[in-house]
Amino acid sequence: MKPKENLLWSIAFPGFGQILNGKYLKGIFFVLLEIIINVQSHFNKIIFFSFNGEISKAIDHTEYQWLMFYPCVYFFSMWDAYRDAGGGKDPYSYLPFVICAYFVTVGIMYSAKVRIFGICLGTVWFPMLCVIPGVLVGGLLKMIVRNR
């Protein structure tokens, strides 16, 4: 249960899983990275506007060059906490996390242009949807590589 618990803590906030693992310096580093990226990208404003249906305001306030760092820090923090807690003994356990980070980063890049049923989901909702194909493709890739 501990690897999954640490994974969930890292989902809640990057760095918390590392702190739970006793890797305090690494945990503090991830927490600081998350705070810096959050502030510089205006992520809290973006989330606020998105949750209130003001997608165009969310897009206007987005600092894309900072926000594109977030998926890499977020998914690496999750994988690292999971691995350090004893999960991920499979040598390819990182693949779903890496592929998710890639899909979400690309989702951020195209989030202002992509329309689903004529609706722009913006810089929060569309990248979140990109996690689904990221997990599926990453899991499939892990299975293919493992069974070669």
Structure description:
This protein is mainly α. The chain has one domain (2-146). It contains ten helices and two strands; from the N terminus they run ααααααααββαα. It has helices spanning 2-12, 16-20, 24-41, 43-51, 55-61, 64-67, 70-84, 95-110, 122-129, 131-146; strands at residues 115-116, 119-120. A two-stranded antiparallel ribbon has the order 1-2. Strand 1 and strand 2 form a beta hairpin. The two termini are 29 Å apart. The model has no long low-confidence stretch (mean pLDDT 93).
Key words describing this protein structure:
148 residues, mainly alpha, two-stranded antiparallel ribbon
Number of domains: 1
Low-pLDDT residue spans? none
Name the helix and strand elements from N-terminus to C-terminus, one letter apiece.
HHHHHHHHEEHH
Q: Roughly what percent helix?
A: over 70%
- What distance separates the N and C termini? 29 Å
Strand order of the largest sheet: 1-2
Please state roughly what percent of the residues sit in beta strands, choosing from under 5%, 5-15%, 15-25%, 25-35%, 35-45% or over 45%: under 5%
SS field, number of helical segments? 10
Structural class: mainly alpha
Shape: flat
Rg (C-alpha, Å): 16 Å
Quick summary of this structure?
The chain crosses the membrane at residues 24-44, 94-112, 124-145. By secondary structure, this protein is mostly helical.
How do the strands and helices of this protein lay out in sequence?
Elements: H1 2-12, H2 16-20, H3 24-41, H4 43-51, H5 55-61, H6 64-67, H7 70-84, H8 95-110, E1 115-116, E2 119-120, H9 122-129, H10 131-146
Antiparallel strand pairs: 1-2
Helix pairs in contact: 1-7, 3-7, 4-5, 7-8, 8-9, 8-10
